[in-house]
Azurin
Amino acid sequence: MFAKLVAVSLLTLASGQLLAAECKVTVDSTDQMSFNTKAIEIDKSCKTFTVELTHSGNLPKNVMGHNWVLSSAADMPGVASDGMAAGIDKDYLKEGDARIIAHTKIIGAGEKDSVTFDVSKLKAGTDYAFFCSFPGHISMMKGTVTLK
Ligand SMILES: [Cu+2]
C-alpha cells in the first residue's frame, strides 16, 4: 500500500515535469512566402506566451518581409486588408487597431523579432489565427492558434 502510494507520487511528479508547458515558440519564415508551422497551441497554464519570428531567406523586407500577427479568426481578414493600406513603415498594420492581440514588426532575411502577450487575452471557445500582413502573403502565410 505504502509502496504503491510512493510509486503513484513519483509518477505524478515525473509526468508533471514532462508536461510543464513551454510558453514560447519560434516561427521561421522564408523566401517562399511561408511559415514553418500551421498551428500553434498555447497551454492554459501559461501566463504569457512569446513568439519569436525568424526569417531564414535571403530577400530584404521590402521585397519578402514578414510579420507575425495574432487576432481572432473572424477579425483576420479585416486586420489584413486595413494593414495593407498602412504601409511598410507601420509594419502593414493599422495604427491602434484593437483587433490585433499581438504582433511583431516586419522583418527581412536574417532578422528576427519577438512578441510576448498575456494569455488571459485569449478566451476559450474563440478561434484565433496568426498570419503575415505583408500585402498578398495572407493566402499562404496563416495558421491557427489554439488555447488548450
Ligand atoms: Cu509575409
